[in-house]
């Protein structure tokens, strides 16, 4: 069915190529693909027209302006048949070329950066869960997000102010991982490609710990695009996040082997910029601060620091539990260091190493061989008596 391209061209008066010139930000890919707004095709520009009409009614301004950002995939010619009329994706590409809309590899980061910098409301049905680590201001926000809805009994599309809720930390990690796997073509039917992710891969480039990706039906290095060699089964891993004053600054991966000890201490903070973590607090963390052990499908932790660490449980949308002390090595001396006497370290727990420096578990199921978020500063080489991990 042919679209009313003349009506769609009439939307151009609302479009602004620069975010600081717009009254609202539009998650264009999300809106065009939002089938709940009507239409029998997977993509349709009519949905954008309905949203703009709703903005005019909501604001009382017939000349309301928007900055619309799309993923490049929305304009990819391979998907033109998902529109009701081939003229629609052609018009989108024309708008991009004229600078009326923005199209980039992934729209969400820019969309949220603009919302943060300019305070401009965002029109989208996306929860942006995977981006809340980089944008903690989204947690519980009730001012900056609007969702378009079409009433069940008919009538025009309306815009509803959203409560973005407080999402659990593990959900943020897990959703961010799903976004990453999707970008690497490692999702199939909504599920991660376990056949790829449960294998170790070797890149022909020296010193590369490859993140696999699928391109052209082949497993390649995400960074170099080179074919990867299968190096056998991959050991299960867990990821731990190190936060400084509420912001994740580094993370560490540990093998999820039954009974294997992982010693975490000051050396793991070497990658964090001194401007974010002063030397005084860094030195307050012991060289061997905690011992973490995988035990019967759970994590157990023992405090081995010179001071005393503490743990609490985070309750999504509510107050955290009171702090409680961790079992300390000195306390177990009389009864022996039986792992069963260590403290539990659950998915919703956080451990305070020293004030303002906190350890949490990530919700990722497939953390990389080497975490990508710790590359700001290379780790120092530990001294002979200062191993970062041990198996004894």
Question: How is this structure best described in words?
Answer:
31% of the residues are buried. Helix content is 20%, strand content 25%. The termini are far apart. The model is unreliable at 371-392 (pLDDT under 50). It has 392 residues and is of the alpha+beta class. It has nine helices and 22 strands. The strands form six sheets. Strands 3-2-1-4-5-6 form a six-stranded mixed β-sheet, sandwiched between helices.
Which terms would index this structure?
alpha+beta; 6-stranded mixed beta sheet; 22 strands; about 400 residues
- What is the typical, i.e. mean, pLDDT? 88
Distance between the termini: 70 Å
Poorly predicted tracts of residues: 371-392
Tertiary shape:
globular
Strand order of the largest sheet: 3-2-1-4-5-6
C-alpha Rg, in Å?
Answer: 25 Å
Tell me about the largest β-sheet.
Answer: 6 strands, mixed
In a few lines, what is going on in this structure?
The chain has 9 helices and 22 strands. It is of the alpha+beta class and 392 residues long.
């Amino acid at each position: 069915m042919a679209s009313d391209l003349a009506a769609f061209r009439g939307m151009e008066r609302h479009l602004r190529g620069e975010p600081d010139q717009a009254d609202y930000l539009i998650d264009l890919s999300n809106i065009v693909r939002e089938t709940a707004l009507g239409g029998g095709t997977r993509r349709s520009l009519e949905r954008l027209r309905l949203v703009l009409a709703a903005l005019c009614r909501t604001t009382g301004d017939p000349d309301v302006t928007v900055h619309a950002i799309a993923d490049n995939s929305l304009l990819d010619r391979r998907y033109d048949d998902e529109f009701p009329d081939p003229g629609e994706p052609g018009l989108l590409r024309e708008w991009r070329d004229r600078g009326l809309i923005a199209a980039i590899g992934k729209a969400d980061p820019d969309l949220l950066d603009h919302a943060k910098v300019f305070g401009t409301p965002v029109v989208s049905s996306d929860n942006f869960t995977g981006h809340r680590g980089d944008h903690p201001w989204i947690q519980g926000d009730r001012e900056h997000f609007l969702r378009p809805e079409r009433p069940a009994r008919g009538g025009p599309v309306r815009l509803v102010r959203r409560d973005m809720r407080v999402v659990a930390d593990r959900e943020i990690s897990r959703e961010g991982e799903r976004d990453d796997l999707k970008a690497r073509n490692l999702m199939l039917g909504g599920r991660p490609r376990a056949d790829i992710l449960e294998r170790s891969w070797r890149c022909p480039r020296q010193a590369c710990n490859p993140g696999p990706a699928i391109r052209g039906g082949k497993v390649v290095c995400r960074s170099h695009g080179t074919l990867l060699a299968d190096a056998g089964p991959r050991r299960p891993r867990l990821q731990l996040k190190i936060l400084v004053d509420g912001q994740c600054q580094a993370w560490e991966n540990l093998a999820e082997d039954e009974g294997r000890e992982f010693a975490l201490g000051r050396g793991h903070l070497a990658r964090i910029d001194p401007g974010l973590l002063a030397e005084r607090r860094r030195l307050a963390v012991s060289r061997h601060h905690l011992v973490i052990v995988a035990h019967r499908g759970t994590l157990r932790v023992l405090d081995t620091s010179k001071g005393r660490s503490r743990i609490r449980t985070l309750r999504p949308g509510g107050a955290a539990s009171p702090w409680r002390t961790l079992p300390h090595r000195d306390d177990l001396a009389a009864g022996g260091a039986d792992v069963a006497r260590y403290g539990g370290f659950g998915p919703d727990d956080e451990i305070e190493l020293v004030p303002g420096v906190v350890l949490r578990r990530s919700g990722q199921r497939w953390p990389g061989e080497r975490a990508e978020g710790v590359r700001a500063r290379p780790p120092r080489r530990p001294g002979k008596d200062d191993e970062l991990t041990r198996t004894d």
